[in-house]
Design a protein that fits this description.
By secondary structure, the chain is α/β, with parallel strands linked by helices. Helix content is about 40%, strand content about 15%. The chain is built from 6 helices and 6 strands. It starts with a strand and ends in a 20-residue tail after the last helix.
Length: about 210
């Protein structure tokens, strides 16, 4: 079983990495492979809506870290996305990355377990958390929740180590992710009829 972790911070070994390391402890404990890709230090441009991916087996026209991550996510049972807060929102790199990842993927995300985290000095974590979760909720992905908002607090490198509640919550979310992934894996054959969806009528607001 495998989890893909997307680290949206540009900082090497910063507060976002420290929080994700707490999750990895739990994944390792339960023999879940955790693959982390750090994108905050990469040049990731936004989606063009060109539909190149639809004609090229889900491969984005920009052959970069998005295509790399998509290949990993296809084989994963869960996805963790963590971002520092920039002006009350995820940073621009991670939004561009997620737009392209979710749009280009030619495989179903349904029943892959998602979790997101927002890391900030002080404010904007709730709005950032909301933005990140929307990628999951429109893709049929169950969300692993914790005992509070999935926040982490710290400004300078390492300050998040003082946020004991936030680090505990990261471990709790990881544990619940493992539970959900294993439960879904055990149930997918027994209850496979429940995974068959109705036909979809694409409807816009002018018809």
């Amino acid at each position: 079983m495998k989890v893909l972790i997307i680290n949206g911070s540009p900082r090497q070994n910063g507060n976002t990495s420290i929080l994700l390391a707490e999750m990895k402890k739990i994944f390792n404990l339960y023999d879940v492979e955790a693959k982390e890709i750090r994108i905050g230090n990469k040049n990731v441009r936004g989606c063009l809506g060109c539909d190149f991916c639809a004609e090229h087996d889900g491969s984005c026209v920009f052959n970069d870290v998005v295509n790399e991550a998509s290949a990993e996510l296809k084989e994963a049972s869960g996805l963790v996305v963590a971002s520092p807060v920039y002006y009350g929102s995820p940073n621009g790199t991670i939004i561009s990355f997620l737009d392209r990842l979710f749009y280009s993927a030619n495989y179903g995300m349904k029943m892959k377990v998602g979790a997101s985290f927002a890391i900030a000095r002080r404010g904007g974590t709730s709005t950032t958390f909301d933005v990140l979760n929307k990628y999951f909720t429109i893709s049929g992905m169950p969300i692993a929740s914790g005992d509070y908002w999935n926040n982490g607090f710290g400004s300078k490198k390492g300050e998040i180590l003082e946020d004991k509640e936030g680090l505990r919550n990261a471990r709790v979310v990881a544990q619940r992710m493992v539970f959900l992934m294993k439960a879904i894996n055990d149930a997918k054959d027994k209850y496979k009829d429940l995974l068959i969806d109705e036909n979809r009528d694409w409807t816009n607001f002018i018809k």
